[in-house]
What does this fold into?
Amino acid sequence: MLKVELLDVAIGRVGILRGISLEVGTGRFTGLVGRNGAGKTTLLRAIMGILRAQKGQVHFDDKPLESMPVHARARLGIGYMPEDRRLVPNLSVQDNVLIPAWASGLQDPKRRLEKIYAMIPEVEQFSGRKAMQLSGGQQKLVALARALMSGTQLLLLDEPFEGVAPVLARRLAEVIGGLKQEGLSVLITESDLSHSEEVLDSLYVIDRGEVSPRPL
Amino acid sequence: MKRDTTLLIYLPLLVLLLAAGPLLPKWAGFLVNVSLCFGTVVLGMLILMRTGLVSFGQGLYYCLGAYAAGTLDHFFKLSDVPLMILCGTLLSGLVAFGLGFLLARYRDIFFAMLSMAFSMILNGLLVKTSELGSTDGFNVSVHSFAGIALAEQSVRYVTYSTTVTLTVLVGVGVHLYLRSHLGRMAEAVRDNELRLEYMGTSVKRLIHINYVLAAALAGMGGAMMAVTVGHIDPEMAYWTTSGEFVFIAILSGTGSTLAPFLGSTVFETVRSFAYEYSPNTWQMTLGITMLLVILFLPGGLWSMFNRQSGTA
Amino acid sequence: MAQQTGEFFLEARGVNKKFGAVTAASDINVGITQHSVVGLIGSNGAGKTTFINMVTGYLKPSSGSILFQGRDITSLIPRQVTNLGICRSFQIPQLFGTMTARQNLRIPVGIGARHPGAQRMTDAQEMATVAAVLERFGLTGCADQVSAQLPEGTRKLLDIAMAMAGNPEILLLDEPTSGVSAEEKFLIMDMVMGALAASRTTVLFVEHDMEIVERYASRVLAFYDGRIIADGNPQTVLTDPEVRRYVIGEHVLGQGHAGGSHA
Amino acid sequence: MNQLLAVIIDGILYSSWLFVIGVGLTLIYGVMRILNVAHGSLYALGAYAGSSLAGYWISHGYPPLGSYAALLVAAILVGLVASPIIERGLLRLVYGKDEVVLVLVTYSVFLILEDLIKLMWGVDPIFVPEPYGLLGSFSVGDLSYPIYSLALVLVSVLAGIGLTYILNYTRQGKILVAVIHDRETAATLGVNVRLVYFLTFTAGAMLAALGGSLTAPTISVQPGIGVEVIVLAFAVVVIGGLGSLGGAALGALIVGMVRSAAVHYVPQVELFSIYVVMALVLIIRPKGLFAVPEARRI
It folds into this structure.
């Protein structure tokens, strides 16, 4: 599904990632664990194309992504959930979730929306509220729902459990675990394994800009 | 440390320009003179730009300086070259000292816009003041130099050499200033205000100081322009005049105190010739020149001479 | 925690900080004695940087007060706090990006030399001081490179060196080794601590790397959800069950304490 | 009493005009973070194109009412021609540069367009007043106003309501809101930000040109008419808080009323009253009336 090979990423002249290789198999849940500043967010942003790689390749379904603009990558079916949620504060929750569908001209957004609501009923409950009226944890749920709208193939979830109260974190883990049945491929980052361990099929550890596989 | 070659350029430049004065054809001498006046205003902008601020209202001080000089002649018959320039410089510096308390709080586009508003207010005031000639402004004449009466035919060379000498002096002065601790701090403001505050320094005060310096130089340029051209009008405070200063500043680059003079000379030359040969497309020529510089010489014209680094 | 007064070098009394509905600091009471080296640990958003921001005047507590040498500094702004002798470094290095490393350091050295009461220096003396600092931090080799283009570890060092150039009474280091390669992390800390050894400067540092905390801190404060949940010597705090659960996390990998936890 | 009425009506008419020229500027700034100096030239282009087209229409004896359509078509044409050249051809190359450099780029475009207009239309004034007189006039008390002057009121209200509607109730508008808020995240959601930029610039250019083409019948169209418009539009937009639609409306209303009052009561200060208001607003609210709060740095 996703294959990253020998990726080098620098921000400005500052090298953040060095020689990253990693693979997310179809229908597999892959974890990327490392502490703050290790380079997790940078790696996901590079996969999405927000950051340019200096070296190396990213393939999605055997298609090279290097020369593809960000929005085109999203339209391949990659859903990205940023760590800081980044909802549009003055749009309603439902509008936030629907933006990817509108942007890519999805045929039947209502059906996909209903499916997402079925997976995360909470989001439907506050679908009429403005995003800025939600708590941080609720926003995480909405960000996940939004990522699911474009992420019909692959989900990139950046620290989905970070800064969330334990109850909500468990709920998020449950929702994410439920995605297994959808046949989705998922890459999850976390600073430890406290929430994602049960759902993972494979694991990588990232430390100071370098990634290595780790048995579970 | 790299050797400081800039100072070594200023002295021969002074001698060369002074010596060339009587030899240059009238138009060329005038062009050099006007370029130096513009260059002085832009030199002030360079100081401001070192702190990261760009004013779209430098015309305010340029115009104030010119009117201070003009008023001395017009109302008090004190048409003495150094006195007029001194008054223009001081008045602008003084007004900037007052407004600086306010403007030092502003950054980016809001700094640019507020300075523009002030200069447009001056423009509006002058246009409505019939005592100062309203839209037409008035003529400025020069009769003495430091108390010594001037003969009619020597006025032009006296203003020319005064401009040249003063310009070189402020060029050297600003050069030394930028190399001083205070000047380095100005650059630090542009790079990282937060860090400076965390070193125990008041960024606002630094900006205020540089704002006053820039204004004083603009006033000086305006006063020199008034005695050079012999006519002033409210257009000097209109936004397009300020726009031209920003234009020259970006065209020049901020790499050296010599850059504004290079930039203004190129600007004046392009403008004069374009105006001469194609009066309907001279603005277009300037616009295209500017776009080419922004696209291909992002560091301004000066970066052609100073490819390796941006030291002052 | 003990509520003594007057005897601490730096003290926070009942400090709270709210951002809208979010509580970033809740009832922080802590006293720091002079010459101590204190590690601040806690997961992201636990309130460590907020604490540093409040001490240095970048943020104002919603309630409570902060005292330095018995003097209330709660309402001071960063410039004033710095002038009292409290300096800090930053998680993301705050450098003068277009200047070289040498020029960067020259700014605080120049400021220091112009303090009232400080000894004035000639240009040559200033440059010599700068050169000495560069030498001490092993930055001589890249002294004339533009700081924005230096590697992250070097930038981090330069950032800390600039904070130290003010000869602080208290030095606050915000994640001094984040974004730095594994080989460099002890190197950086050794240089910093070595340079401070003579003056026995009081240090507070925020750190995620428990190896660093264990090796350099004489006291550890563990933050969780805006509160300090443990305070004491490194051995005690790092083995505290609450700290292990909330701060370090039982499943941490790639850190010294993760030992055999991936079972 | 009559004078107060005159002040209010003049104020409304002037505010409408200001809003039409300001709204495109604030739209472009809000989405693209570019303070477009060339906005005034687009206004001038609209005025020239409008008077040429309407003049052609009328001089060929077509039904005079059609001249209104000609004004409208002229504005649309200007937008359709200018935008690909300016946005795709030039601005695209300089995205990401300093805000001030971007201002200078558009300033250069302004200089180029000023001369281009002279090359295309010459320097003699053009006067096509027919659409202005065609509709007759209406009176309020003993004051008489041409009905045509309501056209700008209508257009400004339509533009204001239309843009508000689009931004709040249409998919395209909500996508735009997402881009304004955070273009990077919008792109990760599949939004083609490049296209959004292009369409925004086109819409902004059309609005500027529309302001010009509708004003054309009331003035003599000559070189330099765009210069004053630029600073006025800046004033309106800056007072409102750059990039805010409601701010532009309020800014236009404030500036319009102040100028109208100045014209009637203290004509000496008319010229710079606007800049006094602008300075005062910025002194009291440094980022305009509807400023967007900024994020923390550390």
Observations:
- The radius of gyration of chain C is 19 Å.
- Chain C is about 35% helix and 20% strand.
- Residues 250-263 of chain C have pLDDT under 50 and may be disordered.
- Strands of chain C lie at 10-19, 22-32, 37-41, 63-68, 71-72, 86-88, 170-174, 202-206, 219-224, 227-232.
